[in-house]
Amino acid sequence: MGRRERPLDPAEGPVAQFAYELRKLRREAGGITYRAMARQAHYSAATLAHAAAGERLASLPVALAYAEACGGDRDEWERRWHQAAQDTAEESRAADDDTEAPYPGLTRFEASDSERFFGRDHLVGQLVDLAREKDFVVLTGPSGSGKSSLLRAGLIPRLQKTDPPRVRPATIRILTPGPHPARTHAEVLDPSTTRPGTVIVVDQFEELFTLCADPAERKGFLDLLFTAVRPDHGIRVVVAVRADFYGHCTRDRRLAQAAQDATLLVAPMSTEELRETIVKPAALGGLIVERTLTSRIIAEIQDEPGGLPLMSHALLETWRRRRGRALGEAAYDAAGGIHGAIARTAEDLYQSLTGRQADTARRILLRLVSPGQGTGDTRRPTRRTELTALGDGTDADTDVVLERLAHARLITLDEDTVDLAHEAVLTAWPRLRAWIDEDRGGSGPSTGSPRRRPPGRTSGGTRAPSTGACGCPPPRSSSAPRTISPRWNGSSSTQASTPAGVSGEAAGPVRSSCPSSSCSASSRHSSPGSRTGPASGDGSRRRPVGSSGSRRVCACPTRSRRCGSASPRGASPTFPRRVPRCSAPRHSGTRTCSPIPTAPTRPCGISAPTAAHSSASAPAR
């Protein structure tokens, strides 16, 4: 007999409560042994026993395997696990609100974070050597590869600590181009006012091509840069540009030459570098990361281009949901993992806003995006006063939404400038991605006043179901392509579509599936002779039905009537969409429909189909 489990008090907390419920489920299953459970669950007996020990919350896969081995319902126990994980996170967050997080999340590392910036020692050394040898250096890599952090927490601190002191830079300036780079940074780039030996770091260099719309302004900024790096001025420049904008450097001969002479590519991290990035920041705070979680994250991130901000945010949310000193898989699963943590954080925030605040959040976030034209979307730093002037929201709404977004680390607030925390938000949050795609589609301007929502579309960008006055589907446009489902003699429900190029002007009458006299859901569609028959098993189309032009449309399915509709021998009568097929027998080209029993009516007064119309012979959808 196995060792006796220690008693659990479910009042100790959500972890103990969940473990208590697992043990109760096992008792109700007849006290099945952990060895027997292991054979069914494909986890070791020790792992399953530990899940019900109450020391920390088991990971979701282990918890579900435990429950299923005892005959529990998977969906029900998944819901219980998520509730326990949420309660655990809230408990941990309340206890550690004042503790500094070991991971920055979506925000970049700053120079002050150099002590916890791990995994890039080799690349930082390469960049420092290149910056000492060349006057103009280009650093490039995909979005999310850590270029900004590499400059701030890697290059700058290393240059400031260079030995001997006489070779250290006189000054280090860091800037981003913005919409007016020449006017904004003319003084910094003026050799007469900048000390020799200064290193100027230009981050987000792609803004020169995305935010600066004036070619003369762009050329003026490049003139300032290359004047500053002349040998007699003693100034060096390091720029960081996103890889998908690297080709834009060829637009200027001087820039192309400089990039050709001194470019450093930010390569993906190795396994050991990723391990340092995960484990060492937590160790500085006296925490540990479970080995299984470390291995899992490394396996997930290695094939994810630009996935470092996703990993950092997932680790931050895991840290917030930890229990005790350990960061484990249970907390990681509760956070949403690499691919779901950002979306879960953003969606939780969005759902907690009022209706007016949600509209304000949408306007703010769209203003912080510069949609790409043939390239990826980019961030657009914006002044706070510009965001306050958007739409119908009050200043108070804007301030509240900005603070909430900043607290969730989705945006950064820097004096009077608001910016997305990272471009990873643009792709990792489906709702924001839908807004951007909708905005790019031309339904409204990407800047200025907020766009009205297109008719028939929900706030998430999905198509809303449309209804007529009685709740029935509205009529289709006469020019819209129509898909009909021929149903005859128990055949499978295959669709025949109107061929391209067939006009709807020559349409024959097709009755609506709604017989209500108050419903205007009747319309004209493509001509009967232009429709094709049901698809054959090999995907080919049969010959056109009703090509002789003598075909009629049976209008009986929702009414108690006889239609007596005749069709050419061998041709299949076509019935309206969304209407039960006529189940009457077919006789040598003539079909007679028997009366249909009256069924309970819908709220709009329309008779609902009865069991006679939904028999087993009806084709499956």
Question: Helix count, per DSSP?
Answer: 21
Radius of gyration: 33 Å
Q: What proportion of the residues is helical, as a percent range? A: 25-40%
Number of strands: 18
| Fraction of residues in β-strands | 5-15%
Largest sheet: 5 strands, parallel
Low-confidence stretches: 443-621
Shape: elongated
Strand order of the largest sheet: 2-3-4-1-5
CATH architecture annotation of the domain at 120-265 = 3-Layer(aba) Sandwich
CATH topology of the domain at 120-265: Rossmann fold
What is the CATH level 1 assignment of the domain at 120-265?
A: Alpha Beta
Q: End-to-end span in angstroms?
A: 54 Å
Q: Could you report the average pLDDT, rounded to the nearest whole number?
A: 75
Structural class: alpha/beta
For CATH, the homologous superfamily of the domain at 120-265 is named as P-loop containing nucleotide triphosphate hydrolases
Summarize the structure.
The protein is of the alpha/beta class and 621 residues long.
Provide tags for this entry.
621 residues, alpha/beta, 434 Repressor (Amino-terminal Domain), Rossmann fold, 5-stranded parallel β-sheet, 21 helices, 37% helix
Summarize the structure in words.
This protein has 21 helices and 18 strands. With 621 residues, the protein is of the alpha/beta class. Among the domains are: 86 residues, lambda repressor-like DNA-binding domains (434 Repressor (Amino-terminal Domain), Orthogonal Bundle), CATH 1.10.260; 146 residues, Rossmann fold (3-Layer(aba) Sandwich); 88 residues, Orthogonal Bundle (Arc Repressor Mutant, subunit A), CATH 1.10.10.10. The strands form 7 sheets. It has a 5-stranded parallel β-sheet, with helices on both faces. The protein has a 3-stranded antiparallel β-sheet with strand order 10-12-11. Strands 6-7 form a two-stranded parallel ribbon. Helix 2 packs across helix 4, helix 14 packs across helix 15 and helix 17 packs across helix 19. The longest helix has 22 residues. The chain starts with 13 loop residues before the first helix and ends in a 30-residue tail after the last strand. The C terminus is likely disordered.
